[in-house]
């Protein structure tokens, strides 16, 4: 989908995006279009490793009352799409939420006979402890009932595990702490057969934040910490690791390379 940059950055319009793309031409047409719009996705990523299936982030969800009109009481074929891709909900062993924002927890639950029930009945849901505790104790923007309809029912069903920010999810998959966007935000590192991939979560919403690493989203809990985290992450993973952007459009992934002072590029 194409997205106005002002959705993420109040002070960044399409002209600014085009200026950034002119300085970093690798951005277009893979990640921004010729008009300065961002190419974005909201998606759940499934890791299938040695017989274990892990769903990372569960999008917005259906039937949920949200202040954002584009996300309010959706009726989308998410579960049908998962089945068509070969991942029926009952086959998922683990659900990982990189953080507990609205577009990362929505399909944790679904509405059945007026009650919110776990969408993935055979899975353990992993919530990072500081992230869980923060949102348990603080109101969400616009007073959306995100914790109540998408997190608390998992706890009530006995399917939640609170874990450390660097927890091993299963052999070959572990969490990598990447705070700043939220207090307990994590990315997900996958290692198999000598190769590595990492799922960003919202630590990098869009690759323009790789070209301009100091550009933090208006949704970031701590913008300065988010920028510092990006610098550390990009330095750490500019070693050939495949970086998969949770919200990146276009090819959706690439490998990080240095592109000047405090700037990096995505090679796709």
Order of helices and strands: EHEEEHEHEEEHHHEEEEEHHEEE
Task: Please tell me the overall pLDDT.
Answer: 96
Biggest β-sheet, characterized? 7 strands, mixed
Q: Using DSSP, what is the number of strands? A: 16
Poorly predicted parts = none
Estimate the helix proportion, in percent. Answer: 10-25%
State the shape. globular
User: What is CATH's topology name of the domain at 42-194?
Assistant: Metallo-beta-lactamase, Chain A
Oligomer: single chain
Question: Quick gist of this model?
Answer:
The chain is an alpha/beta fold and 268 residues long. The chain contains eight helices and 16 strands. A hairpin with a 2-residue loop joins strand 6 (109-112) and strand 7.
Provide a descriptive summary of the structure in words.
The chain is an alpha/beta fold and 268 residues long. The protein has a domain at 42-194: Metallo-beta-lactamase, Chain A (4-Layer Sandwich), CATH 3.60.15. 22% of the residues lie in helices and 25% in strands. The chain is built from 8 helices and 16 strands. It has helices spanning 14-23, 78-84, 102-105, 129-137, 146-150, 152-156, 208-211, 223-236, and strands spanning 2-3, 38-39, 45-49, 52-56, 94-96, 109-112, 115-118, 124-128, 160-163, 168-170, 173-177, 186-192, 195-199, 242-244, 253-258, 264-267. The strands form 4 sheets. A 7-stranded mixed sheet has the order 10-11-12-13-14-15-16, with no helix packed on it. The longest helix has 14 residues, at 223-236.
């Amino acid at each position: 989908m194409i997205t106005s940059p002002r959705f993420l950055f109040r002070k960044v319009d399409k002209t600014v995006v085009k200026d950034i793309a002119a300085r970093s031409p690798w951005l277009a047409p893979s990640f921004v279009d010729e008009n300065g719009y961002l190419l974005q996705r909201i998606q759940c990523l499934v890791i299938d490793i040695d017989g274990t299936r892990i769903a990372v982030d569960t999008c917005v969800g259906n039937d949920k009352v949200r202040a954002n009109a584009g996300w309010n009481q959706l009726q989308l074929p998410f579960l049908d799409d998962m089945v068509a891709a070969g991942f029926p909900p009952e086959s998922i062993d683990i659900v990982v939420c990189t953080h507990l924002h609205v577009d990362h927890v929505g399909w944790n639950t679904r509405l059945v006979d007026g009650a919110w029930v776990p969408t993935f009945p055979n899975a353990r849901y992993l919530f990072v402890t500081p992230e869980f505790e923060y949102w348990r104790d603080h109101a969400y923007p616009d007073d959306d009932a995100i914790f109540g309809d998408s997190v608390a029912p998992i706890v009530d069903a006995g399917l939640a595990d609170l874990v450390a920010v660097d927890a091993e999810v299963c052999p070959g998959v572990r969490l990598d702490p990447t705070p700043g966007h939220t207090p307990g935000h994590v990315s997900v590192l996958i290692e198999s057969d000598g190769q590595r991939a990492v799922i960003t979560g919202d630590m990098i919403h869009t690759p323009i934040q790789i070209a301009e690493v100091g550009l933090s989203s208006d949704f970031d809990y701590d913008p300065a910490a988010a920028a510092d985290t990006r610098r550390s992450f990009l330095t750490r993973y500019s070693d050939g690791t495949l970086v998969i952007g949770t919200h990146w459009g276009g090819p959706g992934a690439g490998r990080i390379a240095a592109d000047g002072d405090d700037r990096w590029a995505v090679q796709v």
